[in-house]
Amino acid sequence: MIDVKWQYLLLVAVFIAAIALSLWTSTRVDMRDIEQSLANVSEEHEGVIEGGNLPLYIGIVVALFFDTLNADVQ
Amino acid sequence: MAHIHLPDGVFSLQWVIVWWALALIVLAVALLVARRQTFTTQRLTAAALLAAISFAIFQVNIPFAGGVHMNLTPLIGILAGPAIGSLVVLVVNILSAAIGHGGWGLIGANSLVNISEVTSAYYLFYYATRRFELFTRGAVAAFGGLLVGNVLSVLIIVISGIQGSTLSGSALFVYILQVPLLNLIVAVGEAIVTGFVVEYLGRVRPDMLALRKVAGD
Lengths: 74, 217
Prior knowledge:
Helix content of chain A: 55-70%
Helix content of chain B: over 70%
Distance between the termini of chain A: 38 Å
Oligomer: heterodimer
Strand content of chain B: under 5%
Mean pLDDT of chain A: 69
Low-confidence stretches of chain B: none
Number of helices of chain B: 7
Number of strands of chain B: 0
Largest interface: A-B, 47 and 59 residues
Order of helices and strands of chain B: HHHHHHH
Radius of gyration of chain B: 17 Å
Structural class of chain A: mainly alpha
Strand content of chain A: under 5%
Order of helices and strands of chain A: HHH
Number of helices of chain A: 3
Radius of gyration of chain A: 24 Å
Shape of chain A: flat
Number of strands of chain A: 0
Low-confidence stretches of chain A: 47-52
Largest sheet of chain B: none
CATH class of chain B: Mainly Alpha
CATH architecture of chain B: Orthogonal Bundle
């Protein structure tokens, strides 16, 4: 077992490095801009999978999952 | 944390089907594993509560770099295990899509990302870090699990490509790599929260952390 003091010191060092990297990145980019540019779908492609019965299919799959799980409860 | 917030239409239909199919295969395996396990009512209740808590925390927007959120998927992995945890994140992703948090077509991709977090956090907690104290184990498992999920989400976006975008391949990879770097700050917060929760449960309800007996525990 590594001493708790060293465990926490190592954690703090890693976390401070991660926060510093994240904050530095945030000063250089705008995530909203990234998401908007990625989601800037042309009219030709917009909603290409909408209009089907996907939510219904998902509902059926989920219902089957719960049905299976429920049967196994002891 | 790692969650692809893109609407329907961003991925081409073929990639939507590919990620959905992969997710269903992984979920089928999770179901088969779950059926072999002893499934107590207490564990089912814990899984249901974890789904509710995770769904709620998904919707709490942290105003950093355009908005990020916690997942608590590593905690799901630690408390529910990879098999039940995979089903929990599927439910959370379906409910999230129902309120416009990520597209319907991306439930498959997002489930794969979250399942990777659940599974990696579970193995980090119960195997890789068992020589450490509980808080450290929880924090390392959460941080590591979320890093894995972030890498997978970047890979999924780069492999799928963006319809109507001129960015692709390595250019898209470099561009999208900024997102996991921004997410690191939330990973730290989530790691600390997970560490405290695990340490507390270890003191008051150690049975909830005993999904698998590990030598040395």
